[in-house]
Every structure is written in C-alpha cells, then in structure tokens.
Specification:
The chain is of the alpha+beta class. It has helices at 60-63, 72-97, 106-135, 144-164, 168-189, 195-199, 209-227, 232-259, 264-280, 286-302, 334-339, and strands spanning 14-15, 18-19, 23-27, 30-34, 38-44, 50-56, 317-318.
C-alpha cells in the first residue's frame, strides 16, 4: 500500500532561501521525492545500505505547456499517483524481497494491482453508493443521498487506515511518510538537512495527499448533490466519470489552501486533512530520517539546486533493481536519460 503522495507546492516561490516545490511519497523502506524537473528515490537496502536513483521528468506529460494549466495539472498529479507512484512502490517492494530471494513478476504485479483497484472501487465507491441509496430511499432532499454516501466513505476510509496502520509493514511505511514530511518542512524553513534539525518538525504537512483525499470527499458530496437521485446506471457512471473532474478541481483547492494557509479560516477548513494524517504519518526512527534526507538531497542535486549548508551527506550507493526490471537512467547522465524508453517516474 502506498502512503499518500504529496502534490507540488502551491507556488514556485522560495522560503528560507530554498525552493519549496517538493513533494514526495513513502515507499517500502524508502522515500521518493519529486522536484521540478526530476524525482529521486532513496531506499534502505536489506543489507543496511542507502541506495538511490534519480529520473528526469522528460515525458510529454510533464514537459508540455498544457501540463501546467490550471485543472489540467491536477490530472497530471492523478496520473503520477496512480501509475508512476505505484510502479516505484512495487520496485521498492522488489528490493526488499531480495533478502528472501523473492521477485514479483510483472504479470503477478499487474494482476495484484487490478484486483486491488477492483476491491478499492467496490468497497469505497460502489458500496457507499448502494448503502446510501437504500438508506435515503424515502428522502425528498437531493443532498441526502450524497451526504450519507460521503459519510460512509469517510467512515470506511478511516477504519481501513486505522486497521492497516496496525500491521508492522504499513506502520513502517507511515513512519517513512512522516520522515518525508519532516524533511520537506526542514527544507522549506531553510534549515540544514540533518537528523536533529529534521526531527524537530511535525509529521503532518499541508500538501499531503491525505488532505487531497479529504477535499475530494467534500467536493463529491457537493457535486453529486447537484446530480441528485438518478437511475442506478447514471449514478454509477457519474462516480467514475467524475473522478478526473473532481481531482482537477480538488488540486486547485489544495493549492489555494496552501497559498493562504496563514489565514485562520483557511486553516480551519483544511484542518480535517491534518487530523487524518495522525493515522497516515508516524514518528520515524533516525535511520528513516537519514533515508528521507538522502532522497531530498538527490532531488535537489537533480534539479540543479544547492543542498542547504550544514546538511549531512550520508553514504549511499546507486540503486540496482532486481532482474527483470529496467534500471532508470540517472538524472545526471543526459545521454542515458535521452535514450531510455521507460517513462520517468514521479510520486
């Protein structure tokens, strides 16, 4: 399972002398950081080493002018989260499986993902729709059914996160999620990237994908209340077709919320997302913070940005992916980056 990836910063400015257009994603025993022009991945190898890899963001999806348009950029983030982020999550799992001489084949991965997404759609979308339709069958208000549907979705989602967070593997992913956020906080404040400096920051962050999900639920309640009760086929199709539209709008709301976070009303509106992060982020250990710092430093270097003065540079080795997976071209190798056929990966 992936921890919630953080969309990009609300604007391209600078705070504390350092760029703050960085978001990330927790992986299995690692962290992925997404910069402006490249992504960086740092993993704790089963033998204890920190291994890293970088990739340029050079596909047309990321370099086209349209990718930066309002509402379109939200769809790019959705693509990054569902497709490329999942690919790196699987890669990180394969690296950890090396210890047991286990490798997940592409066919197994594809089937597992299809089953996972199918169950997620059935449980978090179709089941709430069915229950809310039955529960509000006698209601005359058009907003009653989507309101109940949204509440059921929230309850199921929180229950699921609470349950999985109690498993050792997912708990560690949530710890890396916290380390990712804490490192981004330190960068935004202009502090050196050291374990001691990073550790003083909270695990919650206002650009986390958790807030994005909360916004989507609220938007879906409002949007589907406008649709009202329709034929079952229409209601089901509206939920599927509405996902990209709501994602596009939700991303813009998230950016506005981040830009005006200093306003008390905005903080209050966005506060539920921070509360949910009490589940999806946990306090990391020092070695996890080391991995997050390594990932951030790799991302900064790949973007051509300086590492904050006084930062700790941890020893790390190039990531060698298991047999059967294609090793990403390093961001610092323009020839290899130009010739690779594999699309770049981002959180």
């Amino acid at each position: 399972m992936s921890a919630n990836p953080a969309p990009l910063a609300a604007d391209g400015g600078r705070r504390g002398g350092t760029p703050f257009a960085y978001g990330g994603q927790a992986l299995m025993e690692g962290v992925l950081m997404r910069g402006r022009n490249a992504i960086a991945v740092a993993l704790r190898h089963p033998d204890g080493r920190i291994v890293t890899s970088t990739e340029r963001l050079e596909s047309r999806i990321h370099t086209s002018r349209a990718a930066k348009w309002p509402f379109v950029r939200g769809l790019v983030v959705l693509y990054e989260t569902l497709v490329i982020g999942t690919r790196w999550l699987v890669r990180s799992a394969n690296v950890q499986a090396e210890e047991d001489d286990v490798e997940l084949g592409k066919g197994t991965i594809a089937i597992t993902l299809l089953i996972t997404f199918g169950i997620a759609i059935a449980v978090f979308s179709l089941l709430p729709l069915f229950i809310s339709s039955v529960a509000t069958s006698g209601a005359s208000q058009g907003w009653a059914q989507p309101a109940v549907e949204g509440l059921i979705q929230v309850a199921l989602f929180l229950a699921y996160l609470t349950f999985v967070s109690r498993t050792p593997d997912i708990y560690r992913v949530f710890q890396y999620h916290g380390a990712e956020h804490m490192t981004i906080h330190a960068l935004e404040a202009g502090d050196p990237l050291t374990v001691n400096e990073v550790r003083k920051y909270p695990t919650a962050h206002h650009r986390c994908g958790t807030e994005f999900l909360v916004i989507l639920v609220l938007l879906s309640i409002f949007a589907f209340s406008l649709v009202g009760k329709q034929e079952p086929v229409v209601m089901v199709l509206s939920r599927f077709l509405g996902i990209p539209v709501l994602a596009a709008v939700g991303y813009e709301v998230l950016k506005i919320g981040a830009k005006f976070r200093h306003h008390r009303i905005v903080r209050a509106i966005m506060f539920p997302g921070i509360l949910v992060q009490m589940i999806t982020t946990k306090r990391p250990t020092d070695d996890m913070i080391e991995v997050a710092i390594s990932s951030m430093e790799e991302a900064l270097e790949a973007d051509g940005n300086p590492i904050p003065a006084g930062s700790t540079i941890f020893e790390r080795d190039p990531l060698v992916l298991p047999t059967g997976d294609t090793k990403p071209a390093p961001a610092t190798d323009p020839v290899a980056a130009a010739t690779t056929d594999e699309p770049p990966a981002v959180p």
